[in-house]
Protein 1
Amino acid sequence: MKEVVSLPKARDTAIFGSKAVGLGDAARAGLPVPPGVALSGSIVDAVASGEERAIAKVAKSVQRLQVPLAVRSSAVDEDGAEASFAGQHLTLLNVPSAGEVTSALKEIWWSANSDSAITYRQRVGLFTRPSIAVVIQTLLDPDVAGVMFTKNPMSGADERVIEASWGLGEAVVAGLVIPDHFRLDRSGQVLERKAGRKSIAIRSVASGGTVEEAVSAELVERLCLDDGQLADLGRLASRSEEIYGPARDIEWAIAGGTLYLLQCRAVTRAGT
Amino acid sequence: MAGAPLEAVRRVPLFAELDRHEVEQIARLFKERRFSEGETVVREASGGAAFFLIDSGEATVSVGGSERATLKAGDYFGEIALIDEGTRSATITAATELVCYGLTFWDFRPLVQGSGPIGWKLLQSMAKKLRAAEQTEHP
């Protein structure tokens, strides 16, 4: 089905992929998710094929979203293999206008059909036609962002582990900084605060894309989360576990004083 | 019309035996793909599942690190990957901004499997290519 729906209406992983449906679950449960839409794999395919009707439908659906936009793949694959394709399918941060969504969708479609993606598919025995659904959301301009595990992924301890840095969370996810490290117990009590070395921040630029920016000297080793923000994250961890189940891996961002959930998935490397 | 320009598709020897309607069916399956200058389009020895027709721009062909040829608008590469799922025999790099039309194995195979006449004509084209190669090797 060539569908575009608002995130709260994304319910079927076979149509919209697990990332979109995960965000849909969060939106339906009232968690703070940046506004966005989910595109089915078939409409992404139609846009990549240059079908005018599909292009117009997507353009209309994203008009209401505040730009810039983050355009992320949400793979629809055998056995919910989203995690297996991490790094194979493209995410385009900071698409500066609705008019540039079409070319972003083409790039994402081809990322799943690139030689490297095909080689990977052959290697893991998934040599089948990829179906790439997409999530398009308003890109936040966060002050601080990062990841949070609702259970310690290294030790398996029943505690929250938070890694945070200045700017977009990609600096943490891509390992470009030594992030600040925090541990909280389930009640939100802070067990550990360890400042990292956050020499750069990733920021969006007006013309599109992102840039690595030097962080001012006094912020490099200053903790980027205060007690109030840690308490908010502790509450988000509890609420996410209520909705999704235990041991979650959460991407989050704080922009304009509000904490947002960007992604929530099962921890894939839980400890003993 | 979505897809690749009909005339460009007709010039590909693999499709030379097909009639206009059959070429139209194949042309519709192509999707535009853009590459920036310096970007690797396909990499030697990598798996491949797409065939590309160049719409505009130029690309260089290199094998084992040495440059062999330059491709331009109307040129094509990777058509055998449509059939045998094999690895790339050369690296193609965009020498300028490059616009291609790509056809993937996944889109091509169902069309051929569903049409005996198209399959037969492709087989004839492949047989001609094989005979020409044999004559070059053993004149």
Protein 2
Amino acid sequence: MGDSSKQIREAARKLFEENKVDLIIGFEDGSLPLRATPCFIRRGEDAERLVWNSFCENNLATYLPKKKGKTGIVAKGCDSRSIVGFLKEKQIERENLVIIGVPCEGMIDRKAVEERLGEREILSVEEGPEEIVVKGTDYEEKMKKEDLLPESCRICTHRNPVLYDVLIGEALEEQKVADPFELIREFEGRTAEERWAYFCGETEKCIRCYACRNACPICYCEACYVDSSEPQWFGKSIESTDTMIFHIVRAFHTTGRCVDCGACIRACPMDVDLRFLNKKIEKDVLELFSFEAGEDPDEPPPLTTYKQDDPEEFIK
Amino acid sequence: MEMHEALQASWEPKIVAFLCNWCSYAGADLAGVGRIQYPPNTRTIRVPCSGRVNPLFILRALQNGADGVLVSGCHPGDCHYLSGNYAARRRFAVFSRLLEYVGIEKGRLHFSWVSAAEAGRFAEVITEVTEEVRKLGPAKRLVKKKVE
């Protein structure tokens, strides 16, 4: 991990020297343990701030649309797939972009660490190749990194960036996942009553802060349906059906676009299971249109195109 | 209790039907001209194309008390705008699965292709949809409660 930080800094410095970028978006150490925070580097000498570790969880692609000038970006697998999405949707231009690709072994889920520690405060964290050591005033605890991965990293099959100009380190071997939609299939097998009860329970937690939308790289629309007052599509309160409609449509808007980076889940302060909707759509899009988001920038998004023999067994 | 049963017995499903101007709407018109009988449970909203139907229209209809929703457009290949119904087909393939997945009963949401010449078919579709929704009873999920 230390090596990667060094290589990212070198690559960044070189890009500034060669005048290839005006800005580099990467990560720097956060002010708290277990945190890395997005940073925006505009001069070669500031490249020292850049780091790479298992806490670089944010999807940096979120910052790309609307950026002027030449931009460099540090991108792991999911970030690069979001970039592919932007290219597909013509939100950014490839020639204005320099992608510093970093193979990623999964980001540590902060909530999982905190859960294990209970009330104990974390003062510092050291990261090794396989494990992290969490230290507080009167304790020191070793935890295996692979036990701390969020579900989206655990079943990730795109650890290497799909698109890059510079690759940091060596490409990793991709994980073999028997069934990425295991949880979804299990949920589909439940009765309508059970599914409805779960959906009600999850949406009930929601406080409609829209953090999921703000963190999501593909929610870049200038005017979002949730903010629209003319027409006002649904109520602004936390009345249960309004919240449900918000969640159904938020998920629907990710159709063929969600790369399962987990940004929405991490942003949610109420632990709403947002992924169970996104992942379902991902599964259906794959089944219905054999389409996977974030693969080929030249392939059109699935809802903007069609085939004459698309499935229509649901139509009378 | 008697009152409740009486209400139940007199309950008729309310179905919002989004009909494409160029086919299903004209099909409905032809059914009327031809005096073909079909249940009076649908409330028609004329749209320029099935591709015009935003999933939010459907959710709003359900939220505001519709017991069922029907979206009907031109047969594949017959779209007035060439590909509107193809786009709608993809969109609703995903959307209808999503609604079912979160627990909305399968029979609340219907889609059909009915051309301007198919008056008999239009009546059949409406009859079929009405019966399916009737079997499910009044919609409860996703219906916004009115503030007294």
Protein 3
Amino acid sequence: MKARRDIEQEINRTLGSLDGVQRAEPGDFFFTRLQARLARMREEPTDAWERFIGIISRPSVAFSALALILAVNGVMFALNLPTTGRQEQAALQQAFADEEYQFGIANFYELEKPEQ
Amino acid sequence: MTDIIAHLKQGSEAAFKELVAQWKGMVYNTALGILQNEADAEDVSQEVFMQVFESIGTFKGESQISTWLYRITVTKCLDFLRKKTRKKRWGKVYSLFGAQNELVIDPPEFHHPGVELANKERAQLLFKAIARLPDSQKAAFVLNKLEGLSSKEIAGIMDASVSAVEGLLHRAKQNLRDQLEDYYRNQD
């Protein structure tokens, strides 16, 4: 374990390690590469699709869309919960369908039997 | 310099070449300090000059050209870092679904070419700590340490007050000190 004073010295020396640093320069032919890129940019119009992907791939946009979908789902689910009125209506419709289309009959042999 | 700007506004390629030759070191060095990756720094430096070429018409000469260039560079670097973070985050999500995407991998260590050999290891450690600073502290510290700018000059670039910049620099140094203290304490 280093003494407090030693650690302090190390920190100060490390913080001072950038004193007198020389300026870094880009590689040779920087202007040529820049010119080539400018020429490429003039040739290709900005890709709208790429910009669109860039926008929708932002976490804020993606999570907002997900939250919106979940909220819409929740609302639709709440609206379609069975209520007493709906249950009665469904029962009436079922009874009517059973009577009209003979849903109670399982096979066609029974269908041919005359009603007694 | 005003001559170069005037010629550049008229679309002179020679003026643009002169401007790039004069300021490329400053732009690249700032970008390298913030991004800590030579390829990324070159990429962003090109983008800075492309923006200068496109928007020279909007430069009114109210601030110095160096301030304007520094401002564009810092903004582009911070945008680049945000995009990179976003790419990394989504890369992890995509990998959960088995998608094959280009991996964003940071090089393990960064050596600034201008650092003296004797300070190489310490500078590497310091850069690692700088990379963990919040964006505005990182930008202010790099401009101060690598470009040797005063608080007043940084305030002009970051569009903030001198006291705000001094606060940023103080917090940056304190953060770096805390990180380095953790490192040296756990070293043994």
